[in-house]
Write a structure and sequence with these properties.
This protein has helices spanning about 5-20, 25-85, 90-165, 170-200, 205-210, 220-230. The chain is an all-alpha fold.
Length: about 240
């Protein structure tokens, strides 16, 4: 393979890769459905036109049928008039022949329009089947697209959540909690220490009072001792 051909292949591959990355499956699906709806609209237009032609042709056929009946009646009436002497026999035959010729032409038109009506009826049935099939496909694809879009949203949310969960470092979280626990314990010990300091005696008298405690003589005993020292009668 020549160097130029290899370079062309490399460029072609890179171009396809770039286009693949630019493609959005959801947007492409939505565009495809819009295109199908456009096709459906065109098909329904064609169906309406064919139906209109079939209706006109069927009406034309009925007119020819009526003409055929009328010309036959006229031919019979002409012959009856001649038989009753109301019309010349030669003239009656000529006019009756003309009437029958027109009846024959009407019959030919009946056969032609019958064939056309049958053809248009077949075309109508064929188009209706295709329109119904296309409408059904569009409805089905729209439902599938809605389902896929919902699944894509759920998948994206799940992926995001899993990614966040995967990024969480549990060991660092535990270590942080342990540091907080140690800090709290330190603060509690410090508070307790301050409490003991606050409860400690502040002076020598406080220390004496603390040492004597409940063994210190009561105030009444001190009063009696003082009275005895002064020689006062305790009963006075």
């Amino acid at each position: 393979m020549s160097i130029f051909r290899r370079l062309f292949k490399v460029g072609e591959a890179q171009t396809h890769s770039l286009i693949d990355n630019m493609e959005d499956p959801v947007k492409m699906s939505e565009q495809a459905i819009r295109d199908l709806k456009q096709d459906l609209g065109n098909a329904m237009e064609s169906l309406a036109e064919v139906k209109a032609i079939a209706i006109r042709t069927r009406r034309e056929m009925k007119n020819h049928e009526q003409q055929s009946v009328d010309y036959e009646k006229k031919a019979m009436l002409l012959l009856q008039r001649a038989q009753q002497g109301q019309l010349d026999a030669g003239e009656s035959d000529r006019l009756a022949t003309e009437a029958l010729n027109k009846k024959e032409h009407a019959d030919q038109e009946i056969a032609r329009t019958q064939a056309e009506v049958q053809k248009y009826d077949n075309m109508t049935a064929n188009l209706e089947a295709k329109v119904n099939d296309l409408r059904s496909r569009i409805s089905k694809w729209e439902n599938e697209l809605r389902t896929l879009k919902a699944r894509a949203k759920v998948s994206s949310a799940t992926k995001k959540l899993n990614k966040q969960m995967a990024g969480i470092d549990s060991s660092s979280t535990v270590a942080m909690l342990e540091r907080m626990k140690t800090k709290v314990e330190e603060e509690e010990s410090l508070a307790e220490s301050y409490g003991e300091i606050a409860a400690a005696p502040k002076s020598v008298d406080d220390e004496i009072d603390k040492a004597l405690g409940s063994s210190s003589p009561a105030t009444s005993d001190k009063l009696a001792a003082l009275k005895a020292k002064m020689g006062l009668n305790q009963n006075q």
